[in-house]
Amino acid sequence: MFKGKIRGMLLDLSGTLHIDNIVTPRAVEALAKLRNAGITVRFVTNSTKTSDERLYRKLTRLGFALDRSEVFTSLSAAKRLIVQHGYRPLLLLEDDALEQFSDIDQSAPYTAVVVGLAPSKFDYTHMNEAFGALLEGADLVGIHRAKYYAESEGKLAMGPGGFVAALEYAADKKATMVGKPVKEFYELALRDMDMLDSPEAVAMVGDDVLADLGGGAQDLGLVRLLVRTGKYRAGDETKSSVQPDGVFDTFADIVDAVVAA
């Protein structure tokens, strides 16, 4: 299954290491086992419901040993884009995520509409305000296109992808995407690992065959490993053109196989 030695691993968070406040089986111990084996780890997540700082505190509270600098979020990628372009954004984000943008000018007229996972903002009033800003010339930025995500009780809930698509359709405007599976997002983590020139020695682990393992992960030649936790549903690996290099029951099972290889 592994053509060469895995020396680095990019890890999805929600659905792979934890589901809301529930840790997936043996995930905490498996992360420690990875580190003890000398495998470099970075966390790459499309989680946008809370700020990066809140996410980090949650992960440590769940028992994961990690450094704040090891976590790469699509929320940070969105903020980087906003700063680079000097946007005054209309942010469709949850309040816990908005705190990360407190230093950004968010006054009208807006020059960008930024859409993350924001269940409390996906109503007609907020969506129509975003539509109006787009008609006035604002750019559309989608943090990611996930169709759905897994809630703690195992049910699937709509992700932001459908709402990004609705605004694209209504305003006849294509969104710029910043999170997984955008190639540049993975490259940020690979560069930090000093493994940008050896992606074949890095595994991407996630529960979404498209958002985690497709796009940039496939283009870069990462080893792509799918877990049957989180949003995974039976047969996901056969329902798209993206074919994972391996399918495992849990993240911990992947670690066992990689360390033993």
UniProtKB/TrEMBL annotation:
GO cellular component terms attached to this protein's record: cytoplasm
InterPro entries: HAD-like_sf (IPR036412), HAD-SF_hydro_IIA (IPR006357), HAD_sf (IPR023214), LHPP/HDHD2 (IPR006355), STAS_dom (IPR002645)
Gene3D superfamilies for the chain: HAD superfamily/HAD-like
Cofactor(s) for this UniProt protein: Mg(2+)
A GO term for molecular function: metal ion binding
Spans traversing the lipid bilayer: none
Domain STAS residues, every copy: 1-82
One Pfam family matching this protein: Hydrolase_like
UniProtKB keywords: Magnesium, Metal-binding
NCBIfam families registered for this protein in UniProt: HAD-SF-IIA-hyp3 (TIGR01458)
Family named by the database record: Belongs to the HAD-like hydrolase superfamily.
Protein name: Haloacid dehalogenase-like hydrolase domain-containing protein 2
Species the sequence originates in: Coemansia interrupta
